[in-house]
């Protein structure tokens, strides 16, 4: 009942970078030219939909695993994939997950990380602690305008980008938060795959990113202007 903020579990705004007119690859390249480690961390967020903390703690050596070694639930959600990438450090609640390796860009990034990062190490400036790497990450982001105030986007927006792009690839239709007004036939399957890939245990978690349809099959409407709210993600 607070008059100041309301927490919503349904996205009513597309927080993807492209929705705010940001050229993702160009902006990441700009950051990487200044700090290659922060650039790599952002690229992990983009290619895999990882949380920023997961990207900073990602250990690329040994992360690529065959289907038979992947977690059963993760593998079952992506029967077309034969290889998966394990995220085990920095995950929410300490829950590891295996993300499907789906694109040449993901593979190229993983191989590049294995060349750059020392074995057993994570994606961060050698000699810096995890806390120092975290401070560096957000300082660099502010320097390049990657904030809600400046460009209207955050690093977490790359996770929204991945979720909505993935939903779109699975359904062949825009997500509700991107303007879809009719429920695609495979909406439930796409939501399930999105939730699993992002490391959530509940199907409804996909609504944090892609929005939802109302009971009549219509996309949920945004809150009225002036209604302050905070989105859970």
How would a crystallographer describe the biggest sheet?
3 strands, antiparallel
Strand order of the largest sheet: 2-3-4
Strand content of the residues, in percent? Answer: 5-15%
**Shape verdict:** globular
Query: Which whole number gives the mean pLDDT?
Result: 88
Distance between the termini: 21 Å
Number of helices: 9
- Unreliable spans are 221-233
Overall SS class: mainly alpha
> Could you tell me the number of beta strands?
5
Which bin fits the share of residues in helices?
25-40%
Integer-rounded radius of gyration: 18 Å
- The H-and-E topology, N to C, reads as EHHHEHEEHHHHHE
Describe the structure.
The chain has helices spanning 24-34, 36-48, 52-57, 72-77, 104-116, 130-143, 157-171, 187-197, 207-210; strands at residues 7-8, 64-66, 83-87, 97-100, 230-231. It is mainly α and 233 residues long. The strands form 2 sheets. The protein has a 3-stranded antiparallel β-sheet, with no helix packed on it. The longest helix is centred in the last third of the chain and has 15 residues, at 157-171. It has 9 helices and 5 strands; from the N terminus they run E-H-H-H-E-H-E-E-H-H-H-H-H-E. The chain is globular, with a radius of gyration of 18 Å.
Explain the layout of strands and helices.
Elements: E1 7-8, H1 24-34, H2 36-48, H3 52-57, E2 64-66, H4 72-77, E3 83-87, E4 97-100, H5 104-116, H6 130-143, H7 157-171, H8 187-197, H9 207-210, E5 230-231
Parallel strand pairs: 1-5
Antiparallel strand pairs: 2-3, 3-4
Helix pairs in contact: 1-2, 2-5, 2-7, 7-8
């Amino acid at each position: 009942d607070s008059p100041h903020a309301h927490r919503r579990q349904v996205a009513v705004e597309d927080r993807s970078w492209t929705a705010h007119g940001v050229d993702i690859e160009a902006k990441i390249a700009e950051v990487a030219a200044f700090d290659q480690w922060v650039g790599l961390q952002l690229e992990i967020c983009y290619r895999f939909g990882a949380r920023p903390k997961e990207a900073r703690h990602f250990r690329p050596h040994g992360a690529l695993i065959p289907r038979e070694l992947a977690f059963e639930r993760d593998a079952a959600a992506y029967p077309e994939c034969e290889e998966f990438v394990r995220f085990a450090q920095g995950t929410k609640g300490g829950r590891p997950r295996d993300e499907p390796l789906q694109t040449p860009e993901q593979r190229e990034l993983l191989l590049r990380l294995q060349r750059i990062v020392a074995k057993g190490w994570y994606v961060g400036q050698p000699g810096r602690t995890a806390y120092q790497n975290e401070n560096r990450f957000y300082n660099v982001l502010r320097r390049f305008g990657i904030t809600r105030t400046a460009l209207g986007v955050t690093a977490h927006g790359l996770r929204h980008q991945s979720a909505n792009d993935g939903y779109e690839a699975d359904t062949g239709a825009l997500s509700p938060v991107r303007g879809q007004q009719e429920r695609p036939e495979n909406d439930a399957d796409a939501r399930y795959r999105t939730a699993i890939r992002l490391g959530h245990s509940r199907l409804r978690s996909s609504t944090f990113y892609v929005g939802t349809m109302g009971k009549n099959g219509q996309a949920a409407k945004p809150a009225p202007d002036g209604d302050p709210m905070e989105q859970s993600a």
